[in-house]
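Task 17 of the worksheet. Students: predict the tertiary structure of the chain below and write it out as C-alpha cells. Keep your answer in the requested format; marks are given for formatting as well as content.
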Amino acid sequence: MTTKDKLNRLTNLKEKTLAGGGQERIEQQQARGKLTARERIGLLLDTGSFNELGAFITHCATDFGLAEQQYPGDAVVTGSGKVNGRHVFVYSQDFTVLGGSISEVVGQKVCQVMDMALNTGSPIIAIYDSGGARIQEGVLSLCGVGDMLLHNTLCSGVVPQLSVVVGPSAGGAVYCPAITDFIFVVKGISQMYITGPDVVKTVTHEELSHQELGGAEVHARKSGVAHFVADSEKECFQEVRRLLGFLPQNNMAELPIVEPGDAPDRTDDSLLNLIPDDPKKAYDMKKLIHSIADDGDFMEVHQQFAPNIIVGFVRLDGRPVGIIAQQPAYMAGVIDIDASVKAARFVRFCDAFNIPLVSLVDVPGFMPGSAQEHGGIIRHGAKLIYAYAEATVPKVTVITRKAYGGAYIVMSSKHLRGDINYAWPTAEIAVMGAEGAVNIISRKEIAASDNPEETRRKLVGEYRDKFNNPYIAAARGYIDDIIDPRETRPRLIRALDMLKDKTDSNPFRKHGNIPL
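Model answer:
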C-alpha cells in the first residue's frame, strides 16, 4: 500500500468519524430540533481551537448485533479547546450513535479528558444527550457510568464542571450532571429523570410526558436541579461562555480580572428611595444588585427556583464576586427549605474557587409552619449556616432593612466569620420584629390596659425606636459601619480590595460533616 493509499484510508476514516451515526440519524436529530454533538462543540469553543481525542476508538461488544454497529469514536466526542482564549476540556454525547448510550469505551474517553482536566487545572464542559447506559453491554456499560461518577466527584472543587443537558439524560447516568457545579438546560429538548415516563406509568400509574416528568421548566422551577434555562441551544452555549468568564481555571488559579468600564467610586442617588417607609412594603433587591455591579451586569443563578433568595455573579471593579441576597418582593425574603439549599450550594461553590462573597440582607426570619418543620427546615437551614461558617473567602455583608433572629446570624454575620459588616440607616437588627416582640414581652401590660390597641401601638413604637435599628449592633462591634446607601458600591469595592490578600483556614480534618 502506497503512502497515498494510506492517506486516502485516513481521510475516509476521518470522514466516517465526522459522520457520527450517519446522515439518516443526523437528519432525525435535526428533525427533533437538536444540533449534533460536533455542532455543539463548535458553538461552545473558539473557532478552530478544538483538539479531538479518541477519534478512532470503537467498542468491542458483539452481543445483540453490536458487532455490526461500530462507529469510530463511539457515542461521544471528546477533546479540548479554548473559550475566550482560555483552555477547557469538553465531551459531547452523540445521540446519532446508538442513542448516545454510555458504553465501556465511552466511559474511558470521558474519564481520559477528566483526568487531563485535573492534571492541567482546566474547566470541564460536559454536553449530555444520551439515553443512559448501553443495555446491550450489561455490566460493562455500568462500569463506564460508575467511572464517570467517580471522576465527577474527584474533580469537584478542583476544576469547574459545567453540564449542558440538550437531550435526554436518564437513569443512573443523570447523576453525572447532578454532581457538577452548574447545569444548563434548553426548553423543549432537555430531559432529566431517573426513570422515564413508561416506568413511572407502570409503577405509579402516573401518565406524564417526557417534558412534564423531567423537562427544562420542571428542573429550573420546581426541583432546582437546573441552574440556567435557555430558549435555544445557541443561547445556551453563549451563556456557558459567559459564565466561564466569571470563574477561575481551577481552585488554585487567580480570578479572571477584566478592565472595568465603570468607575469604582460611582454612587447612586436612586438607592435613597429603594427602601419603603412602611417596613411591611416590598421592594426589588435586584435594583441594588444592578446598581453596585460593574456596568449593571448580573448573571443570576437559579433564577426561577426559590426566588425569595437571589444568587449569582457580578464584577466589582473588574473582579468576580458571588452575590447572595434576600428578595423582599417574593415571600418577604424569608428563608425556607429551598432557599437554604440554593444559597448554601452557591456559597460552597464560591468558597471552593476563591470567589469573594457579598451578602445583601433583608430577612425577617426562617419560614414558619408545619410543612417547613416536617420537611426538615432545621436540617436544611443548617446547611446554609455551615456553608457560611466554613467559608474562608472574603465575606462582606450589607444589611439594608430587616435582620431578625437566627436569620440575621446565618447571613454572613460577624458570628459566622463575616469580615466586614455594613448596615444602612434603615437596618433593623433584632431578635424579631417590634410587633412580635411586644406581643410576647408586654402581653400582660397590654391585657391590663384600658385601651389595649393604643397601648400596643405605643409599645411597638418604643421598641422599634430602641431596638430595631443598627446602632446597638454597631456599638457592640457587630456592625463595622453604618453607610450612606448611595455609597454602597464604592464601600464594597474598598472593603474587597482591603481583603484581597486575606488568608484563613479551618481546623485540620479529613472533611466536615455538613448536615446533608
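Marker's comment: The chain has a mean pLDDT of 92. The longest strand covers residues 161-170.
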